[in-house]
Amino acid sequence: MPESPAGPTPPAIFASAVESLRAATLRPELAITEISAPTQIAPWSFALAADVTPSRHGEDSDLGTGRFVLLYDPESPDAWEGEFRIICFAQAPLEPDIGVDEFLSSVTWSWLVDALDSRGAKYDQVSGTATRILSTGFGELESQPDGAQIELRASWSPQDLDIAAHVEGWSELVCMLAGLPPTIEGVTMLSARRAGRE
Q1: 38 CB neighbour count, 10 Å cutoff
Q2: Residue 138 banded pLDDT, cuts 50, 70, 90
Q3: pLDDT tier at 67, thresholds 50, 70, 90
Q4: 8, 29, 35, 84: which has the fewest C-beta neighbours closer than 10 Å?
Q5: Cα separations in angstroms, 82 against 69, 123, 156, 159, 180
Q6: Which of 27, 93, 36, 38 is nearest to 60 (CA)?
Q7: 134-157 average pLDDT score
Q8: H or E element: which one contains 96?
Q9: Measured between alpha carbons, how far is 47 from 107 in angstroms, rounded to an integer?
Q10: Comparing 48-52, 138-142, 194-198, which segment has the lowest mean pLDDT?
Q11: What InterPro entries does the record point to (predicted)?
């Protein structure tokens, strides 16, 4: 694990949380990479990137991509109400007719909550946004077809050191946004049709 700006040896509680995260069983459709974590938000952090396979090495997947960051601050920032905070991001291309669905954002948020709850992740102080992005080309790009994306950014405070449950829920969300069948009972997909990026 890269050294944190707080020093070369991470606190035992943070090391335990990272160990739990690394032991998680993530969806096999994902290519997972440990990446440099942000250093400005908290004294200690750890981050993962995920791309739905197949993808080209070093590039975001055409099917879906995500980031998962675990933050630790022993001073327990007021907004966190605890020493740990998780930040996640997930994005996937869509067919334009799915992108205009007015319920898409709320469904995407419910997928995250369901994925966390189904794995027994304990959390509070959850917040985030689900954004539909529609694009139309003009000028030199006029010949490109219309496009759409869904993007979710969320954060929450885990209530125990079982970070595996949280990262497993995130991996489920990334795959579902990419149009892969859910492993959660009772969850259905909006549509099996997806759009790849050109």
Answers
A1: 11
A2: confident
A3: very high
A4: 8
A5: 16, 10, 10, 8, 34
A6: 93
A7: 78
A8: helix 96-99
A9: 26
A10: 194-198
A11: DUF3000 (IPR021555)
Dihedral in degrees, nearest 10, Cα atoms 184, 185, 187, 192: 80
| pLDDT of 87 over the 80 cut | yes
**What is the widest separation between alpha-carbon atoms in the chain?**
56
Q: What is the model's pTM?
A: 0.80
* Cβ neighbourhood burial of 145 (10 Å; 0-12, 13-18, 19+): exposed
Q: How many residues does the chain have?
A: 198
Q: Please give the angle made by the CA atoms of 38, 70 and 14, to the nearest 5 degrees.
A: 110
What sign for the dihedral angle of Cα 12, 44, 110, 55? negative
Element (H, E) at 99: helix 96-99
Tokens representing 178 are 């990419």
Handedness of CA 87, 28, 178, 32 (dihedral sign): positive
Gyration radius of the chain over CA positions: 17
Residue 111 has which token pair? 């997928």
Whether residue 56 has pLDDT greater than 50: no
Q: Name the one residue in this structure whose structure tokens are 């859910």.
A: 182
What percent of the chain has a predicted confidence (pLDDT) above 70? 74
